[in-house]
Design a protein that fits this description.
3-stranded antiparallel sheet, elongated, two-stranded antiparallel ribbon, alpha+beta, single chain
Length: 207
């Protein structure tokens, strides 16, 4: 009897040719655990790469906008009739946390300045090109329509500030003008300044 059991048990334990064993429960648990670890590692890495890409693209676009704003300023020059804004694009009223944003001055001749080829002064744009983008640009939960150059890598408005040296609304007797662009950064909130991306476009006299 012992001999029969030994032979029978041996046959049961042996692997038949061409018949692979399935995964045991322990092997399955180990495989799932490995996949979970790999997923846990890859997701933060992917998120980090995307975050860095958006930061870099936003910085690049801000630098491009800065050049366009300065070119606009060089062309338009100081116009007494436009003393409210001097030679820089005007602020446009925004909403919520985005109180002042960039208007369409760089894309359209809003003030009908035209271009004088003799004095080489006036509006000689467009200084930027953009396309219409639908999204929640001001973060209020409602859909907005914005131009692509008005929003950052996270789809939120740039804050555009055209102020005097003290941060006040500009006026006739200003001695200094400060032009600033601000992105709210990865957290999409310009009021939390720790991750904001800020670019000072210009600081100096306007005359």
């Amino acid at each position: 009897m012992h001999q029969y059991c030994s032979e029978t048990c041996g046959k049961m334990k042996s692997k038949s040719p061409g018949m692979p064993f399935g995964m045991t429960m322990i092997e399955l648990i180990v495989a799932v655990a490995i996949l979970a670890v790999l997923a846990g590692v890859s997701i933060p890495v992917t998120q980090g790469v995307l975050r860095k890409a958006k930061i870099n693209s936003t910085k690049s676009e801000m630098a491009s906008l800065s050049r366009s704003i300065l070119t606009h300023a060089k062309d338009v020059g100081y116009k007494p009739a436009r003393v409210e804004w001097g030679r820089f694009p005007s602020e446009k009223a925004g909403n919520g946390k985005y109180k002042t944003i960039l208007g369409a001055d760089l894309e359209e001749d809003l003030f009908s300045l035209g271009w004088d080829p003799v004095t080489r002064r006036g509006w000689n744009g467009p200084y930027v090109t953009g396309e219409t983008v639908n999204g929640d640009a001001d973060g209020d939960g409602n859909e907005d329509t914005a131009r692509s150059y008005q929003i950052d890598g996270w789809g939120r408005y740039y804050i555009y500030s055209n102020r005097d040296g003290k941060g006040n609304t500009v006026g006739l007797n200003d001695e200094e003008r400060v032009i600033i662009l601000i992105s709210g950064g990865p957290d999409m909130d310009p009021q939390t300044t720790d991750d904001n991306i800020t670019l000072e476009v210009f600081r100096g006299p306007i005359y």
